[in-house]
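In the design runs reported in the main text, the only information available to the sequence generator was the tokenized backbone. The following block is the verbatim input for one such run; it is reproduced so that readers can re-run the procedure and compare outputs position by position.
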């Protein structure tokens, strides 16, 4: 299983090699002259030969340098792939695969195909992390992370400051009972007898009528006994005369 640093080094070496080849071809076209390169393209059947010569020369020269340093790889790789796709379609497709076959120049598409596919890989994100793009993006991300940390620290300090400025809450005190206040009413317990209920009827079953009859009878008897002892006995009306 490959490691990430090893892949980054290999990708950087691949960009270096492909970039040197592109720069060499671009410089060759510029050194020959854009006009002469346009006439050559016209003889090969390339449409818009002058515009194609300008595009091919500067994209290969500047794109090769961008590949080496790793700048704008998605755009750079796409532009170089289009350059090689045009060369394949209009110049090399009908010449076979090999550029040199049996000692004769065939002008085949093997080099164009290899450079185009490599450019497509770099455009798709295969350039590794040892690039100028990664350095710029990493710097921006680090700056954004630092700004977020500063914002978090500022908000934390502000919250502490607000907490210090906020007055502390005083504990609630229960009022002391005064002498003039009536005593608090308490509910009677289920086990304690009620003050309004007479003692005789407390804890008495509801379906026991015997005690009521007995108590009533005793009360009547005591009432008769009390009346007989307190009232004087009057003599009959015929007995007012005293006997001789």
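Verbatim output:
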């Amino acid at each position: 299983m490959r490691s990430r640093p090893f892949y980054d080094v290999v990708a950087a070496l691949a960009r270096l090699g492909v970039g040197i080849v592109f720069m060499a071809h671009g410089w060759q076209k510029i050194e020959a002259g854009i006009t002469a390169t346009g006439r050559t393209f016209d003889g090969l059947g390339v449409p818009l030969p002058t515009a194609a010569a300008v595009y091919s020369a500067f994209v290969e020269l500047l794109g090769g340098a961008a590949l080496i340093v790793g700048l704008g790889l998605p755009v750079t790789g796409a532009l170089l792939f289009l350059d090689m796709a045009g060369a394949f379609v209009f110049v090399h497709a009908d010449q076979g695969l090999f550029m040199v076959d049996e000692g004769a120049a065939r002008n085949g598409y093997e080099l164009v195909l290899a450079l185009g596919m490599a450019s497509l890989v770099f455009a798709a994100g295969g350039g590794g992390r040892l690039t100028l793009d990664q350095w710029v993006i990493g710097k921006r991300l680090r700056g954004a992370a630092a700004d977020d940390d500063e914002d978090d620290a500022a908000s934390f300090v502000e919250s502490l400051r607000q907490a210090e400025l906020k007055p502390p809450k005083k504990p609630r005190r229960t009022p002391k009972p005064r002498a003039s206040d009536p005593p608090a009413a308490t509910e009677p317990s289920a086990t304690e007898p009620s003050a309004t209920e007479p003692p005789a009827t407390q804890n008495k079953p509801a379906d026991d009528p015997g005690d009521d009859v007995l108590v009533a009878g005793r009360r009547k008897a005591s009432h008769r006994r009390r009346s007989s002892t307190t009232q004087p006995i009057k003599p009959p009306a015929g007995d007012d005369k005293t006997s001789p």
